[in-house]
Design a protein that fits this description.
eight-stranded mixed sheet; alpha/beta; 22 helices
Length: about 700
């Protein structure tokens, strides 16, 4: 049991209070307390206004109206001094002036403060009582609104990808935010809701309609008007806000389905809400990217334009999965921001913790345990990981009880994912535990020290390998990444280079060469093997042979393991054929430390060629993947490369039982296979590394000293 100090418990309890208060602390969209960009809001005090104290966006305070009100300090003084009107408290004329000024104050804040406008003008259906209640944003919705407003107030279009989990209201906010844009910021601002099926789009439209029908007409300058949705020019799919007779604004809302998209081609939209995108099925008639580009192309990157993709996860492949991956990676400079809300940020997924110190102690005592604490169906490490990701005690308490309803984690993850991997993985058959991958990545992932090119001498002869070189680059380019250069210590069986053969074209699989340093496997060192270099690129196969030999030579004449029988790999591989034989023929006479399998059950011939290389087939592939799974779970090697972690996360057992990467643009398993082969050979087919025996000189009869190994 881990030693737990009282000071550690104190720190957890204090941090838990901070997290809990962030979710449940002061938030009042009516006054502006705790609202978006609160630290930059300004306090406006008007004792005779319906909101005596309100914290308003700085944009409000830039208007002449708000500056005058702040300076004069009351509605009464503003009417007298700014408007030059007589003020008699009980007169009808004064009441009318106050009503007009109230509307002007509200109109400015409606325009600049969406949280206030949504609360004051829109109502949504309460899921418990069924009553229509003011739309007050919950904690996850406030996180989404911050993304919306950060983009809008910087003058850019709002482009966001939302990976949904459970019912926290992402679709609701998106649709009513569009309504806010149409109500208070832009007229003629057309919007579309596009879902897999029109029924889903209509449900989203119904939310908009209910809010509209409960909205007072005065909020948009039409006192007494009964607002409603009416068909636009008798269209069954296009709607416009009217008072029952006349249009109140030019903006329209269109509902459409991905399956029958052609009916809205050519329309002009400023806002697009794409719903349940993961379920859009690519067909010969409809490609998700093509459908969206026809809408997105017209949405310019300017303030008040909006484009939101939202969906629950559906496996680790497909258009929406790829959209999320691009948006999640800040290095991609993607046009879209990304939001995922884990279950532990959802307010109704909380349970009371009566003794917080006891709960903190339980977390700390179990944080390093790979076993399940008594009474629960996740490991101690898992619950600690929830804490590290930002969950408060109350959310963890809810989750550990909720998890007990399910026999497997994947079924629970469908309802309550704790991270992005959880949200996607529940519908797939991933081979490697994503939490083990997290642990390995957290400990070992790092940027390479150098990038380099492998430059091969043009002549193919006895001196080619000696004359070839690894050339370090200063521009960060180069297909070879180096985390450690060869070491000068004299060790036998230290390095291994494993090669997964790809194709030469840009659309084919990559060729990957992984260099493993086995120095840590010397019994007296007590370390572990390390990946110290990796090549990943496209190259002609005859050149690849010499590059592989040159890299192996650079790393102390390492054992060179080339995968053979590539044609037996799964159908989705794209290696442009089996080139093992031609590669071997290039270098067999020039590099003598080539791997030969010695105990393969497939050896049925005396042909020497058949025994070179690591033969990948259904049987041996199972061996190396099982071995790699153990290496991942038990953190048995040092893996620095981000590409390896990506491939581990998308490696699955397909429906037909075969193993490979999830099908999708940019998905490969070449780094994984190169590494899996290398680690298998290192663990099973190579002698342990050992210090080279010392050489000593001995004197010949003629007095000439020669070197001899002893």
């Amino acid at each position: 049991m881990a030693l737990v100090r009282e000071v550690d418990i104190d720190e957890l309890v204090a941090e838990n209070k901070r997290r809990y208060d962030e979710i449940y602390g002061t938030y009042d969209p009516w006054t502006g307390e705790g609202c978006y960009d609160f630290e930059h809001r300004e306090l406006l005090e008007l004792p005779d206004f319906m909101i005596p104290k309100m914290w308003v966006p700085k944009e409000c305070m830039r208007t002449l109206l708000y500056r005058g009100l702040k300076q004069l300090g009351s509605m009464k003084k503003y009417i007298i001094e700014a408007w030059g009107k007589q003020y008699e408290e009980k007169s009808y004329y004064t009441r009318q002036l106050k009503m007009v000024l109230t509307f002007e104050i509200m109109k400015v804040r409606f325009r600049e403060d969406p949280e206030f406008a949504l609360y004051a003008t829109d109502k949504i259906e309460d899921k418990v009582s069924g009553d229509m209640i003011p739309f007050k944003l919950n904690y996850p919705q406030r996180k989404l609104l911050k993304i919306f407003e950060d983009l809008r107030t910087s003058g850019r279009a709002i482009r966001v990808v939302i990976l949904k989990a459970r019912q926290w209201g992402g679709s609701t906010l998106t649709q009513l935010y569009i309504k806010w844009l149409q109500d208070f910021r832009k007229d003629g601002w057309n919007a579309i809701v596009l879902a897999q099926q029109k029924n889903t789009a209509k449900k989203i439209k119904a939310m908009y309609r209910k809010a509209l029908e409960n909205q007072p007409g005065w909020t948009i300058g039409r006192p007494g008007a009964k607002l409603q949705f009416s068909p636009y020019e008798n269209s069954p799919d296009d709607f416009q806000v009217t008072d029952g007779m006349r249009a109140i604004r030019r903006s329209t809302l269109t509902v459409a389905s991905f399956e029958n998209f052609d009916s809205v081609r050519g329309s002009n939209f400023h806002c697009a809400h794409y719903s349940e995108v993961a379920y859009w099925k690519k067909t010969p008639e409809h490609d998700p990217e093509g459908v969206i580009s026809s809408i997105s192309g017209g949405i310019r990157n300017q303030e008040d334009n909006l484009e939101v993709f939202e969906s629950t996860g559906k496996g680790n492949s497909g258009f929406f999965y790829e959209k999320c991956q691009l948006a999640m990676d800040p290095k991609n400079n993607d046009a879209y921001s990304f939001l995922f809300i884990p279950c532990f940020f959802i307010e109704h997924d909380m349970e009371e913790v009566k003794n917080e110190r006891a709960f903190a102690r339980w977390l700390l005592e179990n944080r390093d345990k790979s076993s399940n604490p008594k009474g629960y169906r996740e490991t101690g490490k898992f619950f600690w990981r929830m804490w590290e990701k930002g969950a408060c005690f109350q959310a963890i308490e809810w989750y550990r009880n909720f998890r007990n309803k399910f026999t497997t984690h994947s079924f629970c993850a469908t309802e309550a994912p704790v991270d992005e991997e959880d949200a996607f993985r529940n519908s797939g058959n991933l081979v490697f535990n994503p939490y083990s991958i997290d642990d390995l990545q957290k400990k070992y992932k790092r940027e390479p020290l150098y990038t380099a090119d492998i430059i091969v001498d043009g002549n193919k002869n006895d001196s080619t390998i000696e004359k070839s070189k690894v050339s370090i680059r200063t521009d960060g380019d180069g297909d070879l990444k180096i985390w450690a250069v060869p070491n000068v210590l004299q060790v036998d069986n230290r390095y291994l280079v494993s090669v997964d053969i790809g194709g030469k074209s840009a659309t084919s699989d990559y060729t990957v060469m992984t260099v493993i340093d086995r120095f840590g496997m010397i019994p007296t060192v007590k370390g572990k093997p390390k990946v110290v270099a990796r090549y990943r690129g496209h190259v002609r196969h005859d050149k690849l042979a010499w590059m592989a030999a040159a890299l192996a030579h650079y790393y102390d004449d390492a054992l060179l393991v080339i995968e053979s029988n590539t044609a037996d790999r799964e159908k989705n591989n794209n290696t442009e054929g089996d080139h093992f034989g031609s590669i071997l023929n290039e270098i067999a006479d020039y590099y003598d430390n080539l791997y030969q399998r010695t105990t393969s059950p497939e050896d049925v011939t005396d042909d020497v060629l058949a025994k070179y290389g690591f033969q990948t087939n259904k049987l041996t592939k199972g061996w190396i993947i099982d071995n790699l799974e153990q290496f991942v779970d038990d953190m048995l090697w040092d893996e620095p490369d981000k590409e390896m972690y990506h491939e581990l996360r998308i490696y699955e057992r397909h429906d037909d039982g075969s193993l490979g990467n999830i099908v999708g643009n940019g998905n490969h398993d070449d780094v994984l296979m190169s590494t899996a082969i290398g680690l298998w050979v290192s663990a099973n087919d190579m002698d342990k590394p050992q210090w080279k025996k010392k050489e000593k000189t001995r004197s010949g009869g003629d007095g000439v000293y020669t070197a001899a190994k002893i």
